[in-house]
Amino acid sequence: MHIIDLSSPVDASFWEPDPVIHEILTPAEGARHMAEEMKTHFGIDFDPDDLPGGELLSLDTLTLTSHTGTHVDAPSHYGSAGTYGVPRHIDQMPLDWFLRPGVVLDLTDAGTGVIGVERIEKELARIGYRPRPLDIVLLNTGASQYVGTPRYFTDFAGLDGPATDYLLDLGVRVIGTDAWSLDAPFGHMLRTFQETGDRSVLWPAHFAGRRREYCQVERLANLDALPRPFGFQVSCLPVKIAGAGAGWTRAVALVGR
User: Fold this and answer.
1) pLDDT at 129 over 90
2) Positive or negative: CA dihedral 224, 225, 231, 236
3) What does the pLDDT read at residue 143?
4) Sign of the C-alpha dihedral, residues 249, 71, 143, 165?
5) What does pLDDT average to over the chain?
6) Is the pLDDT of residue 29 over 90?
7) Phi and psi, residue 247, nearest 5°
8) Would the pLDDT of 72 be above 90?
9) What is the rounded CA–CA span in Å between residue 170 and residue 132?
10) Cα gap 164→111, rounded to integer Å
11) In angstroms, how far apart are the furthest CA atoms of the chain?
12) Residue 26 and residue 32: Cα distance in Å, rounded?
């Protein structure tokens, strides 16, 4: 089995609308910190110089959103109520949704804007595959080339409402993208709304989750490394954050040799 990493990193050096703060306690600082903790909480004197090299353990403290890096959106992210019932949080989702056969669609020619049903159907016809219930569908839009830069948040393509429903009608419950969002960029959506007055163009892929229970995996990477469009497994198990609308994932593809 060959494992292909499909995840983008959490990196404090990247440009983000909500910047990541990464504070590192070195092993030497960790030793001094532990000495202070032992004294404060347990009344025990501890000399960090007694440790080999005066070091104990490093410690990383991060400030970031649950939508930073590669992550899974839960139904509760899309709204507080769904027509199907109360949307579930990420820690309540069935794990078997996230370890399934995958299919990747090459949509790198889509540019910036929306992807409709016709484009999805064309790509499925090209690769000769029809997604089966609970397959994980991955959209390779080419956006991952801009990870870490402002362009990542403005230059990509997302699904329109009918395209999202098309995949959900096939029984797909997890849709992934290498873009920042499964919807079109904010600017594109808002300009289209201002020109047309059509509210259906506003976050249609996310709002589909108010009618249909499903999850999105956003900010994938390395989809070009997949050796074939289907015939592999995807693992994107989300971190179990209680009551959260999303959870980070180390998404990978499992490809048989």
Assistant:
1) yes
2) negative
3) 97
4) positive
5) 97
6) yes
7) -150, 140
8) yes
9) 6
10) 18
11) 71
12) 10
Q: Please tell me the distance from the alpha carbon of residue 183 to that of residue 218, in angstroms, as a whole number.
A: 10
Q: What does the chain look like in DSSP terms, one character per residue?
A: -EEEE-B----TTS--SS--EEEEE-HHHHHHHHHHHHHHHH-----GGGSGGG----EEEEE--TTSSSEEE-GGGS-S-BTTBSPPPGGGS-GGGSEEEEEEEE-TT--SEEE-HHHHHHHHHHHT--PPTTPEEEEE-SGGGGTTSGGGGTS-EEE-HHHHHHHHHTT--EEEESSS-SSPPHHHHHHHHHHH--GGGSSHHHHGGGTS--EEEESB--GGG-SSSEEEEEE-PPP--TT-SEEE---EEEE--
With cut-offs at 50, 70 and 90, classify the pLDDT of residue 123.
very high
- Does the pTM exceed 0.90? yes
- Asked whether the predicted pLDDT for residue 257 surpasses 90, the reply is no
- The CA-CA-CA angle for residues 94, 100, 105, to 5°, reads 120
Which is it for strands 99-106 and 230-235: parallel, antiparallel or unpaired?
antiparallel
CB neighbours of residue 91 within 10 Å: 14
Mean pLDDT over residues 44-68, rounded?
A: 94
Cα–Cα distance measured from residue 202 to residue 45, given in angstroms and rounded to the nearest whole number: 60
Region 232-249 average pLDDT: 98
Confidence label for 22 from pLDDT (cuts 50, 70 and 90): very high
User: Do residues 30 and 59 make contact, with C-beta atoms less than 8 angstroms apart?
Assistant: yes
- Distance between CA atoms of residues 88 and 84, nearest Å: 11
Task: Give the β-pairing of 2-5 and 21-25.
Answer: unpaired
Cβ atoms 75, 209 nearer than 8 A: yes
Give the pLDDT band (50/70/90) at residue 135. Answer: very high
Q: Which two tokens stand for residue 190?
A: 């808002």
